[in-house]
Amino acid sequence: MLDSKPVSTPIAAGSRLTLHDESSSFDTTKFRQVFMHAPLETHWGVVKRLLRYLNGTRDLGIRLLVDTPFTLHGFSDADWAGDPDDQCSTGAFIIFLVANPISWKSTKQRMIVRSSTKAEYHVIASAATENQWIKSLLTDLLLPVTTTAVFFTDNLGTTYLSANLVLHSRMKHLAINYHFVCDLV
User: Fold this and answer.
1) Which of 118, 123, 126, 181 has its CA 20 to 30 A from that of 149?
2) Number of domains in the chain
3) Domain-located, residue 66
4) What is the pLDDT of residues 68-122, one digit of tens each?
5) Is residue 65 part of a domain?
6) What pairing do the DSSP bridges indicate for beta strands 72-79 and 150-153?
7) In Å, what is the CA distance from 1 to each residue of 4, 33, 46, 47, 109?
């Protein structure tokens, strides 16, 4: 797809893929060369769009400025019960060094959670762990981060829980992630 027409986004807005839909299965050889285990024709269309997007971004890169202080910040979010096949949540985070994305992850959570706060808290704890590792790596490279990393999340329950010790008794099932994140806050 090197000669394909580039697109500006990796996936069309509102696209929703499931394991089972009305499109028929097709030759899976092409798909398995890319990445899926149970491909459908709709999935192949999304893969082709992603490849067209990558084709249009070949000239982009990450620019690190020498005279800018090293600061870390990040964003996290969870799509609570967003998988239409099994109702599992998907969580994602991105960490920036100054204004440059240096680490990101998007993962389907392995368990079904019964609250958006819990889904978000799993993601923010994962992002905080990654942040600690990045700080350690930068220190080992003699580039210490001297400021506290700031993370943004869009879930008020998660924000209140990390800042309010009283709420801890209501969320014992989140105790490990809670204490880890609170120590960092």
Assistant:
1) 118
2) 2
3) no
4) 777 899 998 887 766 767 777 888 899 998 888 889 988 877 777 667 777 788 8
5) no
6) parallel
7) 5, 14, 13, 11, 32
Angle at 25 between CA 20 and CA 31, to 5 degrees: 100
Task: Tell me how far the alpha carbon of residue 60 is from its chain's centroid.
Answer: 20
Task: Find the domain containing 1 and state its range.
Answer: 1-60
Q: Which residues, including other chains, have CB under 8 Å from residue 97's CB and lie 6 or more apart?
A: 64, 70, 71, 72, 134, 138
pLDDT tens digits, 126-159: 898 999 999 999 889 888 888 888 888 887 777 7
Looking at the structure, tell me whether residues 120 and 52 fall in a common domain: no
Decide: helix, strand or coil at residue 24. Answer: coil
Q: What share of the chain is helix, strand, coil (3-state, %, to 5)?
A: 40, 15, 45
* pTM confidence score: 0.59
